[in-house]
C-alpha cells in the first residue's frame, strides 16, 4: 500500500511503549505507527533473526524494531514468549532497569490461529482439540500477566494506557465457543482493569480492529480475489488509533470500554496508509467469524501446499 495518508502523528517523543506479539501482523503495524510518532517501543515476540519463525511466516522482532527506529522512534527487540512467565518477568525487569517507567502497553500477542491446518477452526466445541483451547487461554493469560507487571511502572506518574487487542461484535456469536469466550474475556479484562485503575489515573481499553491485511492474509490474497476491499485495512490503521488514544487527555472517559478502530478514525480524523477510512468492522450475513477464519486458513494452507 502507498503512504498518501491524512495523518499527522501525535508527539510521543519521550513515551515508552511495549507492543507484545509484534514480529508481524497487527503488532508490527502498531509498533511502526508508534515509532513514526517518536516513541521508544519495546517489540516482543518469538521470531528472531537467524532462527525459525512462527508458522514460517516472514517477520521478526528485530525487523520490526529496526522499522520503528527508521521511522523516528527507538525500537528495542526482545525475544519473549508471553506464555512463559520467566520470559515476561525478565522483559519487565529490563524495562524497569532501562527506563523505570511505561506509558503504554499493547497486549497484542495471540497464538490462537496457529496449527489451524490440523483441525477445522470452526468445528463444534466437542470436536475441537484441547490444544486449541489451550492456545486461546494462554494468550488471554498473557494479557493478564503483562498487565499485572506493567501497572507498577505506570502508577508513579498516575498515567498510562493498557490496550487489549481483541474482537467481538456486541452480542453476535463468533462461531466457536472457546474463541468467543476468550475474546469476550479479553474485553471483560479491560473493563475490570479500567474499573480498578480509575482512581490511579491509568486507563485500560479493549480495541477491535477490522479485517486486517496481515502476512497471513497476504499469503492468501491472490486466491481470495477482490476480498472485502471496503473494510480491509492495514495493521498501521490500528497503530494510528492507539497513538491517538495515547495522547488524548480525555482517555479516562473511555477507560474500561471496547472501542473499534474504524470509529476512532472518525473521532480523531485519521486515515489508513492508503488514504481511506475503513469503517468499524461488523459481522454481516450468516457467516460467523470462526467460519471466515476457517476459510482463510484453508486458502493459506492450499497456497503453501502449492509452493
Task: Please tell me about this protein's structure.
The chain has 9 helices and 9 strands. It is α/β, with parallel strands linked by helices and 307 residues long. Strand 4 (104-107), helix 4 (130-154) and strand 5 (161-165) form a beta-alpha-beta unit. Mean pLDDT is 88; it is low at 225-230.
H/E element sequence: EHEHEHEHEHEEHEHEHH
Q: Order the strands across the largest sheet as they lie in space.
A: 3-2-1-4-5-6-9
Overall pLDDT confidence: 88
β-strand percent reads 5-15%
Low-confidence stretches: 225-230
How many angstroms separate the termini? 25 Å
Structural class: alpha/beta
Radius of gyration: 18 Å
Q: How many distinct helices?
A: 9
Taken from the alpha-carbon principal axes, the silhouette is globular
Total strand segments:
9
**Helicity range:** 40-55%
Largest sheet at a glance?
7 strands, parallel
